[in-house]
Every structure is written in C-alpha cells, then in structure tokens.
Write a structure and sequence with these properties.
This protein has 327 residues and is of the alpha/beta class. The protein folds into two domains: 167 residues, Bordetella uptake gene, domain 1 (D-Maltodextrin-Binding Protein, domain 2); 97 residues, D-Maltodextrin-Binding Protein, domain 2 (3-Layer(aba) Sandwich), CATH 3.40.190.10. It contains twelve helices and eleven strands. Helix 2 crosses helix 10, helix 4 crosses helix 12 and helix 7 packs across helix 12.
Length: 327
C-alpha cells in the first residue's frame, strides 16, 4: 500500500512538473502577445530616456509588439524603481536601469529597501557611458599632475560642481580624495548648470560624461586632462587615461541595462535578452550610441547579474566616501 501511495505521489509530482514545463514553454512561444511597458525612472529628454526609447523602438520591431516607454521620475529615481519592482513578473513591465538607479540610489536611500538583486532579474546590459576630467578656462593646468600641483598650491580655494549623488559628483570626489586635495564640492541640480558655471569660472573642474563635455573640449572652452577608461577615447586621442596619469583606480564607466521584476520566467528573460543583444550588434544601434559617446555592451543575463554584483559595492563605496544622502 505504501509503495503504491509513493508511486502515485511521484506520478502526480511528475505530472505537475511536466505541466509546469509545458506551460513555461507555451509562455515562451506566445510571448509577447500584448504591448510591453518599459519604465524609465528619469524625466523625458535626457540621455538615459533617449537610450531607453532607442532600445524600446528596436525591441518593438524584433518582438512584434509595441514597447511603450513610461517616464516615472522623482525621489532620485526611486519612484520608477519601486513601480517596476512591484509590477507583475510576467515580462510586460521592464525597467530601463542605469548605474544611477540600480547602483547609486540604493546607497543614497538606504531606508527605502531598494535592492536590485532582491527585486529584479537582470535581462541585459545595453551600454557603457565613459567620463572625462576637464578643467575650466582659468585653470593653468594641461595634465592631471599639473592640476594636482595647482590645487595643492591653492588649497581650499578651488571647487567643483555636480548633481548630488550623480556619477560626476562621485567620480570627482573619488579623484579629489585619491589625490589628497582640499577642494570644495558645490551641489547643482544637474550637469547642464554645473558645466555652465565651469565655463564661467565659478567652478574649476569636473569629471562628467563625454556627451556633455566633448563639444566644449573641441571648441576649446574646456581642457580635457584624463579619461576614466582603460584606454584612450577615440574622439580625444591626445588625452591620456587616469591610469597613464597615475590613478589606476579611476577606471569607472556609468552604464545602462534592462531588468525585470523578480520572478519573471526564464524563457521570457532569454527572449528579451536575445532581442536586445541582436539590436546591439546592428550598425544602426552602434551609430546611435556613438552619438551619445556611449559604447554598446551586450551580454547574457548571468553576465549582467555578475556585473551588478561587482558594480553595486563599488558605487556604494563612492556614495559613502562623498557623504551623499538622498533628500
């Protein structure tokens, strides 16, 4: 009797497993059968939003369903983050994340319980966003070494501006600390006003994205001293890296990627990952990213997971170093 009961139970379990397997396979074959929402936790019009729309448009073509970008800005990207995390894990709500929303925000707002490793399943990385250090027109320095010497000779007199908790704030503070400089941080509401004041001489240096700074460098309005990459940037071939300039730890890109609510079925994740990676291989996407001074970054969900586990503590340590706290 016991043997028959055990056999019956195992048969039921096997049947349930087969049923779940067929259901998962059917889901993968039918997905997507309705529009997909991609949440962007930033206002429309910025680089992250534009890249999200680029990704969404390409996904729409490849998946045969419309991908609708929905901007949910506010509270340092945490509003959009929480909305995406709370969505049904069915593949029809995604978050277009970035180093700001997935790595910096959890460290800025520790009381809000935002943990991308707990709340999301990685889908695919999409891009790397390199940074460059520049000085204003009134700073007599052509190299990092010259800037360090000038700053030390004028201790307490120089400053730098950036949005609170943004990559420019964190990277500039990291450089200042590693160089042992007494330079004051001035908070701004974003890169545009901080660069305007840098051009006007109200601030003295920053480490910001290539997109906003390269035009100013090429026009001779700002002077580039180093790029925060392993190798030199093609548009600035004469500008050395921080590694060449004696700062081997300043090799840090910002980045973007797509995540889905935790529990989203693996076949759906695989379908989305394959479609995003296919798009990143096209000349159209590569050319569009080049306009943003960005690099395509393809990879598997597992590679994105490993990338997040490496990146999150790195950005959290920079937030702690800067003493930044979300308001």
């Amino acid at each position: 009797m016991i043997g028959r009961r055990a056999l019956l139970a195992s048969g039921i379990a096997f049947g349930m497993a087969c049923g779940a397997g067929f259901a998962t396979q059917a889901l993968a074959q039918s997905y997507p059968d309705k529009p997909i929402k991609m949440i962007v936790p930033f206002p429309p019009g910025g680089p992250i939003d534009t890249m999200a729309r680029l990704t969404g448009q390409d996904l729409s073509t490849r998946l045969g369903q419309q991908v609708v970008v929905e901007n949910r800005p506010g509270a340092g990207s945490t509003i959009g983050y929480k909305a995406a995390a709370a969505a049904d894990p069915d593949g029809y709500t995604l978050l277009f994340g970035s180093s700001g929303s997935l790595a910096v925000a959890p460290a800025l707002y520790p009381s809000l319980d935002i943990d991308p490793l707990k709340h999301f399943t990685p889908v695919a990385t999409t891009s790397l966003l390199p940074h460059v250090m520049v000085v204003g027109p009134g700073v007599p320095a052509n190299t990092v070494a010259e800037f360090v010497a000038y700053a030390k000779a004028n201790a307490g007199k120089l400053n730098y501006g950036a949005g609170l908790g943004t990559p420019p704030h964190l990277l500039s503070t990291l450089f200042k600390t590693q160089a042992g400089l007494d330079i004051t941080y001035v908070p701004y509401k974003g890169s545009a006003p901080s660069v305007t004041d840098l051009l006007g001489g109200q601030t003295h240096f920053t480490i910001d994205g290539m997109l906003i700074l390269i035009p100013q460098v090429k026009q001779g309005k700002l002077r580039a001293l180093a790029v925060a990459r392993p190798e030199r940037w093609p548009d600035l071939p004469n500008v050395p890296t921080f590694v060449e300039s004696g700062f081997p730890d300043l090799v840090i890109d910002a980045w973007t990627g797509v995540v889905a609510p935790k529990g989203t079925p693996a076949p759906v994740i695989a379908r989305l990952n394959a479609a995003i990676n296919e798009g990143l291989k096209t000349e159209e996407i590569k050319a569009a990213l080049t306009k943003f001074s960005a690099l395509p970054k393809a990879g598997s969900p597992q590679e994105f997971d490993a990338f997040l586990r490496e990146q999150l503590p790195k950005w959290a340590s920079m937030v702690k170093l800067a003493g930044a706290k979300g308001e």
